[in-house]
Amino acid sequence: MILDKNTAKKTAKLLLQIKAIKLQPNEPFTWASGWKSPIYCDNRITLSFVEIRNFLGDELAKIVEEKYGKPEVIAGVATGAIAIGVLVAQKLGVPFVYVRPEPKKHGRQNQIEGYLQSGQNVVVIEDLISTGKSSLNAVRALQEVGANVKGMVAIFSYGFDFARENFEKSKVELLTLSDYNHLVEQAIETNYIDNTALETLQHWRESPATWQ
Asked: Residue 9: what pLDDT?
């Protein structure tokens, strides 16, 4: 869910400007899942741009505090949301932990790194939402050790219906700074894509798992 359309548009504009999001309808990317896609998002690039990094951190922190109050802990999903999660925690003045995809196979075999007590209120920070699988896996790991997960706030979401359904089934509220629809809208307004590319993006959006 988007809370502020102006923030959504500005976020999309910034991500396009620094090529954190690339649109290549004629030269599709291959995702880790094996899906072919005309769009690729790598929000880690934002960390190299101080003003953009601060803008994203400020906006994420503002959403967290306005929606949930000041949580006791901010949790970032490894690895993409560790740095931005630390930034949000720093701005809110609260502790930070991060969640691995699975427990380490050595040492203390932690899945959650940092100090977290059972019963603490936690807001999870993500950089990108696609299917939601890895994000919700992090939420479950936190819940299993007794954390009270208030919700998740992310920079960008592809806005897939099945991702929304996954979050609804898990009863986890998801808020994002921007999403696919605002990205495409911004790309059209700035002539980043033409009508042919727009049609390609729309076809992909309808069936991303089988699109070629």
From this structure: 95
Q: How much of the chain exceeds pLDDT 70, in percent?
A: 98
- The encoded tokens of residue 51 equal 């003003």
Structural domains in the chain, CATH included, are 5-206 (3.40.50.2020)
The two structure tokens encoding residue 144: 């299993």
Q: What is the pLDDT of residue 169?
A: 95
Amino acid at the residue 119: G
pTM score > 0.85 for this model?
Answer: yes
Distance of alpha carbon 83 from the chain centroid: 13
- In this predicted structure, what is the pLDDT of residue 8? 96
H or E segment and range at residue 191: none
Regions of the chain where pLDDT drops below 50: none
Task: Estimate the share of the chain in helix, then strand, then coil, as percent rounded to the nearest 5.
Answer: 45, 20, 35
Distance (Å, whole) CA 143 – CA 198: 40
Rounded Cα distance between 50 and 112, Å, is 28
Judge residue 3's burial from the number of C-beta atoms within 10 Å of its C-beta, 0-12 exposed, 13-18 middle, 19 or more buried.
middle
